[in-house]
Amino acid sequence: MASTEKASPRDRLLDAAARLSYRGGVSVGIEALCREAGVSKRSMYQLFDSKDTMLAASLERSIPWYDAQLAHPDPGNATPRERILHVFERIAQASLDADYHGCPYLAVLVELKDPEHPASRVARGVKESLGARFRRDAEQGGARDPELLARQLLLVFDGASARAGAGVERLDDGLAALTATALLDAAGMR
Questions:
Q1: Would you say residue 129 lies in a domain?
Q2: Which domain does 109 fall in, by range?
Q3: What is the total count of domains within the chain?
Q4: I need a labelling partner for 17 at 20 to 30 A (CA). Which of 51, 100, 120, 128 fits?
Q5: Are 80 and 189 in contact (CB under 8 A)?
């Protein structure tokens, strides 16, 4: 929190859920979450129906930050192509952080495998929103098939994120942006 006041138990739980699930996965136990947050299990269950709803709320709360990380700093003056390529430059920068474990929303989808889980619904919405952003930019940039290009870009984004997050690929060589550039060129995007 920005103020000197202590964060509320709800905020501490959401912060703990974000940190622990990103580092260790969504299977983190309630005991560990409560201990990390300094909140009793009883209080947790007064604030949230379940760990699942707490995880979903934590993911939901992170959406504005996540979107801001991928947004071009000057979207009004950037071309659609520049806005798309910025996303891939940002993932390359993020992957250099020692604590980078890939896209948190993709990780939730892969780990949970249950499309009806509350956290899966939030994560799927974030991925759909990124795909819609790619599609809008592809349309504005004159791509021949904006829907196909958006799907391809999302596939590259998720693949690059997963491989870098697993530590099997480095993105600092611009590979993700180069791959996206090849797709933009092939789609006739200006």
A1: yes
A2: 59-186
A3: 1
A4: 128
A5: yes
The residue among 92, 53, 117 whose CA lies nearest residue 174 is 92
Distance CA 62, CA 104 (A): 10
Q: Rounded to the nearest 5°, which phi and psi values hold at 115? A: -65, -15
Check residue 71 and report its DSSP letter.
S
pLDDT tens by residue, 109-152? 999 999 999 999 999 999 999 999 999 999 999 999 999 999 99
Identity of the residue numbered 115: P
108 vs 26: CA distance, rounded Å: 7
Please state the rounded mean pLDDT for residues 154-167.
96
Residue 26 inside a domain? The answer is: no
Residue 7 lies in a domain: no
Q: Which two tokens stand for residue 5?
A: 């006041």
Instruction: Determine, yes or no, domain membership for 37.
Output: no
